[in-house]
């Protein structure tokens, strides 16, 4: 008597899980579309600024959030009810002359920026911070 193997049912994408073959960029696109409000617009703008600051950035999807890396994690883009948070993995080691960091200020490693509805993003200062994070990851900071 021979046994036949049956395939397990395919998993469908949900907020909690996503197919392994879906690219990080597609997952980030889906998250932005899913939000469909100012948070999605803000996350899309932050994503664009990260790419402008570092054209060689690698987009990843970890912990169900966008992650931008270059020789290590630079930052994540998390969304909450009242804020879009950009957490810099090594933010405590970065100079922040424009005073962008306004969250997670007591930690020894990370620092974050909370963007709230209607707030203007200082693109020049944010791109400088992203470039500084790249330099730090490359041992130049």
TrEMBL record:
Pfam families: DUF1801. It comes from Cupriavidus campinensis. This is DUF1801 domain-containing protein. It comes from the Bacteria. Residues 39-134 form the YdhG-like domain. Residues 1-20 have a biased composition (Low complexity). InterPro entries: YdhG-like. Coiled coil: none annotated. Residues 1-21 are annotated as: Disordered.
């Amino acid at each position: 008597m021979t046994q036949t193997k049956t395939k397990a049912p395919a998993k469908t994408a949900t907020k909690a899980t996503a197919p392994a073959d879906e690219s990080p960029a597609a997952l980030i696109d889906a998250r932005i579309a899913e939000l469909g409000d100012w948070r999605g617009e803000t996350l899309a703008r932050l994503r664009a600024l990260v790419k402008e600051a570092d054209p060689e950035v690698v987009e990843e999807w970890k912990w169900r959030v966008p992650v931008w890396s270059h020789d290590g994690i630079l930052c994540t883009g998390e969304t909450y009810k009242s804020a879009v948070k950009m957490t810099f993995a090594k933010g405590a080691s970065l100079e922040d002359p424009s005073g962008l960091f306004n969250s997670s200020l007591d930690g020894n490693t990370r620092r974050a920026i909370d963007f709230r509805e209607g707030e203007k993003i200082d693109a020049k200062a944010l791109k400088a911070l992203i470039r500084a994070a790249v330099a730090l990851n490359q041992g130049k900071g």
